Amino acid sequence: MNKWIEVVELNKIPVxxxxxxxxxxxxxxxxxxxxxxxxxxRDACPHKGGPLSQGIMHGSTVTCPLHxxxxxxxxxxxxxxxxxxxNVFAVKVEGGRVYLQL
Amino acid sequence: MLKENLVLIxxxxxxxxxxxxxxxxxxxxYNITVFGEEPYGNYNRIMLSPVLASxxxxxxxxxxxxxxxxxxxxxxxxxxxxxxxNRARREVIATDGTVAHYDxxxxxxxxxxxxxxxxxxxKAGVIGFRDIKDVDTMLDTASRYQHAVVIGGxxxxxxxxxxxxxxxxxxxxxxxxDTLMERQLDKPxxxxxxxxxxxxxxxxxxxxxxxxxxxNQRVIGVRFKNGTEIPADLVVMAVGIKPNTxxxxxxxxxxxxxxxxxxxxxxxxxxxxxxxxxxVQHRGIAYGLVAPLFEQAKVAANHLAKHxxxxxxxxxxxxxxxxxxIELFSAGDFIGNDKTEDIVFKDAASGTYKKIVLQxxxxxxxxxxxDTVDGSWYFQLMxxxxxxxxxxxxxxxxxxxxxxxxHNPDTRVASLPDNAEICGCxxxxxxxxxxxxxxxxxxxxxxVRAHTKASASCGSCTGLVESLLAHxxxxxxxxxxxxxxxxxxxxxxxxxxxxGIIQHSLKTMxxxxxxxxxxxxxxxxxxxxxxxxxxxxxxxxxxxxxxxxRYINERAHGNxxxxxxxxxxxxxxxxxxxSDQLRAIADVADKYQVPTMKVTGGQRIDMFGIxxxxxxxxxxxxxxxxxxxxxxYGKAMRTVKTCVGxxxxxxxxxxSTGLGVKLEExxxxxxxxxxxxxxxxxxxxxxxxxTIKDIGxxxxxxxYELHVGGNGGIKVRVTDLLCKVExxxxxxxxxxxxxxxxxxxxxxxxxxxxxxxxVGLEKVKKAVVDDAAQRKALYERFLISxxxxxxxxxxxxxxxxxxxxxxxxxxxx
Lengths: 102, 813
Ligand code: SRM
Ligand SMILES: Cc1cc2nc3c(=O)[nH]c(=O)nc-3n(C[C@H](O)[C@H](O)[C@H](O)COP(=O)(O)OP(=O)(O)OC[C@H]3O[C@@H](n4cnc5c(N)ncnc54)[C@H](O)[C@@H]3O)c2cc1C
Ligand code: SF4
Ligand code: FES
Prior knowledge:
The structure holds 2 protein chains of 2 kinds.
Chain A lengths: L3 E6 L7 E6 L4 E6 L5 E5 L13 E3 L2 E3 L6 E3 L15 E2 L1 E4 L2 E5 L1
Antiparallel strand pairs in A: 1-10, 2-3, 3-4, 4-8, 5-6, 6-7, 9-10
Chain B lengths: L3 E6 L3 H13 L4 E7 L5 E2 L4 H5 L5 H4 E3 L1 H6 L3 E4 L3 E5 L4 E4 L4 E3 L2 E4 L3 E3 L12 E2 L4 H13 L2 E5 L3 H12 L3 E6 L11 H13 L3 E4 L3 E6 L3 E6 L4 E3 L2 E4 L3 E3 L2 H5 L8 E3 L11 E3 L4 E3 L7 H15 L13 E3 L7 E5 L8 E7 L4 E8 L2 E8 L5 H10 L24 H6 L6 E3 L4 E2 H10 L5 H8 L9 H12 L20 H10 L5 H7 L9 H14 L13 H5 L2 E2 L5 E3 L10 H13 L4 E4 L5 E6 L4 H10 L12 E6 L13 H12 L8 E6 L13 E6 L2 E6 L11 E6 L2 H18 L6 H8 L1 H10 L1 H18 L3 H6 L4 H4 L2 E2 L3
Parallel strand pairs in B: 1-2, 1-9, 2-5, 9-21, 11-18, 12-13, 12-18, 13-14, 20-22, 34-35, 35-36
Antiparallel strand pairs in B: 3-4, 6-7, 7-8, 10-19, 15-16, 16-17, 23-24, 24-27, 25-26, 26-27, 28-29, 30-31, 31-33, 32-33, 36-37, 37-38
The structure holds siroheme, flavin-adenine dinucleotide, iron/sulfur cluster and FE2/S2 (inorganic) cluster.
């Protein structure tokens, strides 16, 4: 377990956008910031499970497409005044490729 | 000047309120000493019922903590009962021997629960409901025993019964009469109340008279005059209160039911002694509610401060029952007599009852059950003796029915009860909002939205929330500024930025952000979408759309559903279709196993529940059958609704369907500041509802009326007439020009209705109607912008564009 898995090339993720990664039992959204910083978060909003991969990214935050909660991508926490947290995954970029630790 | 000594006996609601009023008027007049039998500071006795029901704690109902007495230099003897007043020596003497000298004295000893003089009434477990001690006894009993009997079906008895039930006891309410709360309710309202309390599990024994409390040391049951018995581990007597005149009497003050006082609240026997609160009798009345006591407190304080101008002349009272979930209001003479008339509304199914008693067109009394929103309004009308003949017909429907004229929304919102729902979307009540504003010290609409979610959804309650803010924080509230910045990332307005983009030829988002000194590097979801639109509108043939600056619906070209799937709405020009087209849609629906289909309000067909991955393939099939995107998801031109028109309809004056198709062919695909809808009706019967559309064409014999700026939705707005034209070609030109003027002038997310209200119809007429050259230029620019816009986004994606957007990455893990 806990091994690094290559999932996608960095330049296949739109800047300030995401790609949806599906494993056998979970869906993970991988976001790319304007500084090429990469984040990975479970594709489910802590509010009502909205698909965060479909949201709009700004800074290191994504706004959920369903009811506009704002989720901090590095911690998975909902920004105040909302409360809740979604799993984040370890992610790294090496040689232009994005790796997830699963 | 030597300070005089003021002594207060009774550390309760009326007495301490008098001191507070006095300190406001004359803070240095007296050395103040207070004796209170209860071992606490002053607390809100009213709130004992919610404490018993576990909705509040004792800490939450404290009004004046012991620090307050210290801070105001007041000597508090708590837990000390005064046993004697020596009027000759002007001294009060507590039972523990403490003595205090007075120059002036206030007696505010309240009242005591009336205990029925029954055999066995002195057994352990038989109590009244008056103070913290009683509540403690009830809570303790509830934790150890099962059966509670409350004698008395009045306000206090029912609140006690409700609390005990909440604590898990089996509660029986025994009442002498056949209807509950006979002093506040008439029979129909009482019956509804009884029914809903029974539904919650309360048991009633009506028309039962208690004969004896049975048991040994401790109560074990209650026996009635008819010989029956029921078990009881606790008996709460709530049959009434009796002014506590014991001390007054022993001091030789004249008492009847209560200590008799004048209009200045001085006892008629000794002007150095004031009496106030439930222990007094004023003009024959002994009150049992706080509102009159607080008025008395004001007058007494005024007199003690030697202003001597105030007179107490009595109070009209109203009551509410504090049982969560039961709405009940009563005031004045709600029974009436042979000189009065009743207006009554009763809907047993919805649990609503309203009765208003009128005499000479003035309200004399009211009972409301179920819906009490207007209670305070009726009460005010009653106190003011307002002549209601002008709105007698609609009186029962409440204040909102009068419309806004003459009723400032601030006062309206102020008169709403705390549990009135302000925000229907998020279910936020007035009380929650006021609480958040005061506790969290909120000052702006945004803050209230963030903390309570009120007005954060559909926004139709924004006005109410702003009034609440204004009302709650008073002078500190700064209304939303007139010129709003585009978003929190900048101080510049929409107009500043739109002009800047053109004037300085700013062609990309980073250019705009750096020119206007944005505070965030990437912007936020509000400004990114707005800027993307402004740039697209300004440079239609050059600007490269930024998909990441579009809301997901526009990025995925479908409406996202609550489960993350999408809907697909193909365009059906003017609502027209052929059997082949319907068959093609049916085939697509079968092939992709569409779970739900629906005919939309926009005269076309919606297919729901499509997985994102499936969208391009489905679009390919639709495209092959000749369909393009319906843009049902976009801030874009949506639909052109049409009616039958002259081709078939016996009233049709022009070919409304044909014109509708031409209009849709002209405008489809256009990105707009907000959604944009058109309709064409074949005659003024207006079956296509053209007068609530962004552009509505109404055909008449002599040509076409062009109406603009309407919408349905949250706040319906009927269109304004823009002008009348004679030919279809003119309709198309004026439409294109109007669209373009709106596209270039409105703020992002501003629909035509609010836009026209903001800029005024005249400005629009000038540009589109009066100035032929400008109209032509606008129309030209519209046609140019339509060239790239009318490349079907569905077909592009079906052919492979933006593939990554629709393709998840599958991994083994
Ligand atoms: C599908 C449809 C209901 C239907 O089954 O009939 C519909 C569905 C939605 N409407 Fe609507 N509206 C639909 C006709 C209408 C109409 C009727 C009409 O167009 O004649 C109105 C009132 C007329 C009007 O717009 O003036 C209408 C007024 C709204 C509003 C309020 C707009 C306003 O200015 O107040 C919203 C909210 C918004 O746009 O912010 C809204 C928003 C929505 C959204 C997009 C809510 C959302 O953001 O997810 C709904 C998408 C549902 C979905 O998942 O597909 N819908 N909506 C109709 C699609 C028409 C079409 O063929 O494109
Ligand atoms: C459970 C409950 C619910 C109620 N609900 C409502 C409501 O919803 N609306 C409403 O308007 N009213 C309500 N009331 C009535 C309201 O609480 C009273 O009208 C109000 O408290 C009376 O104020 P007061 O100062 O006259 O008496 P109190 O508040 O009773 O104060 C009198 C104080 O004097 C003390 N005292 C008495 N004798 C002596 C003595 N010899 N020496 C020293 N101290 C003495 C007592 O211990 C007591 O603390 C409710 C009352 C109760 C008990
Ligand atoms: S009225 Fe419109 S927005 Fe509301 S639920 Fe129906 S489709 Fe959705
Ligand atoms: S599901 Fe994300 S905000 Fe509601």
